[in-house]
Amino acid sequence: MDLYNLPNVTEPPQPMASSLSIPSILLVTTLMVALISLVYWCVQDYRLYMSLGPGGPPYNIWGWILTSFLVRPFTLAADDTTWTGDYPDFGCHKEIEALPERAGERPVVLGIAPQRQFTQSPGPEMNKRVSSLFATAEQNNSKLLQQRLSAFERHHVALFVHQILLLSNPESLPETAIRSGGEIGHLHGETSLHLYFSPADAKVIIDKGWAERHRCARTQPWWFGWRKYLWSIGDTFLLVYAPRDEAEYDILKTLIRASARFMTGREDIAEP
């Protein structure tokens, strides 16, 4: 009998080829690594957003989504906030031109909206003193300035162009003042400030180390039509670093006055 032709004997199973090729395995692995990296970035970025404290956007996951995915693509890169190449080289106020260089390194500033200073922050007593500068500026310029809650931040006191001036004589004001609703600037809990300046003043203030740009303080690129005032923020909206001592506190008075002069269109602003 032929042993190789026995009836009812099945053929031995043949080895099956793998259903996943090497390129498919690499693709799946790459996608998994990318997904894990994205989740990790989202968690870390959300933690950073919440560490900034309340600001303009909602202080929750929806505010983080708005800022990180809708606002971020149109902002300056974090490394570009001290760039001044789009500001004029001449025309600043003489008091601004005379400012000294700020001593030491710049503080660490994080966030888009809100944007906060994380190092070199003074104590709460300095915050009270800086807050009083807004009150004094209003008192010394009662027909030009007024103080109320920030429209941008909604949690902090702000200095505004007086509503009467804003409504009765808007043609005398810069476009920035109209677009911002008259808000000149506001104070933060760690004592940094956001203030508007003329382009020429802004260049000197940044170059001498006293401030940096808000991440939204830019003109959009050509592919977005050179659009300005996206999110109602002009390109000279600066984060002014918190004063560390008496000398820097006095310099802040000069900066607040320069900001108010630009936003009111008036040179006769009294120093706070």
From TrEMBL:
Q: What is this protein called?
A: Luciferase domain-containing protein
Q: Which residues cross the membrane?
A: 20-43
Show where the Luciferase domain sits: 181-259
For this protein, the record's InterPro entries field holds: Luciferase (IPR048273), Luciferase_dom (IPR040841)
Protein source organism: Capronia epimyces CBS 606.96
Record keywords, A-Z: Membrane, Transmembrane, Transmembrane helix
